Amino acid sequence: xxxxxxxxxxxxxxxxxxxxxxxxxxxxxxxxxxxxxxxxxxxxxxxxxxxxxxxxxxxxxxxxxxxxxxxxxxxxxxxxxxxxxxxxxxxxxxxxxxxxxxxxxxxxxxxxxxxxxxxxxxxxxxxxxxxxxxxxxxxxxxxxxxxxxxxxxxxxxxxxxxxxxxxxxxxxxxxxxxxxxxxxxxxxxxxxxxxxxxxxxxxxxxxxxxxxxxxxxxxxxxxxxxxxxxxxxxxxxxxxxxxxxxxxxxxxxxxxxxxxxxxxxxxxxxxxxxxxxxxxxxxxxxxxxxxxxxxxxxxxxxxxxxxxxxx
Length: 311
Prior knowledge:
Number of helices: 10
Strand content: 15-25%
Number of strands: 14
Structural class: alpha/beta
Mean pLDDT: 95
Helix content: 40-55%
Radius of gyration: 19 Å
């Protein structure tokens, strides 16, 4: 099995490192536009194989996509972070151009690959990759939900002083402050979380989760990478090992939750064919209202991209 990670920045390199360390595939190819960056990081990861005892080969390439040929899964992390003075539209236009170019090269050399998008703004970049790749919706998806649920679970574990391994959670919607955490579907070793924590504390944790990325930017001056890179690697593992885990994944909705054509996070079964099944939860009125708010927000950003592409 072969996986390509496009973008050798912090997120991409972390994803490649986790895949190598866990021996998820035989080969991981890192590719980046910056000369020498992917080669250097791939070499560094390979040189610790004797220390951490794994066999996965990691190689790097400076913008030569021929070396990615035959990849089973491709993770796209390419894109620029939003800079001071940069509008949302500026960011969309810049990163959409990058994702479009990357996707064209990916499909050219690995037409059967399953594509996982990590680039931001996540939901609309997944949209861009999907329309460029011209693949079924089951083979082009975005990574956001696993990261968001991980933050939610980590905060709950800290509050309850329990193992994060025991916490299961689900959330829906867009990646950002319109995400829809679902306390009804949150348990600690099977115990509903609402029986273990006061409502005001749970509400505070949900709010912290919604702005989890921004909290890290304030602390470090840059975006997170350990958790996002690991989340993308977890998706890859479920696909290449056909584990059929149920994860929240950004995908084009086709009538599910009463939404058609928007790219939103929903629970899916993730296996060897990509999205094997979209799971439609029975939301109550309040949850559905939040889902529709998230849908409206993401749809507005998609409309911005449509206007740019139509030019």
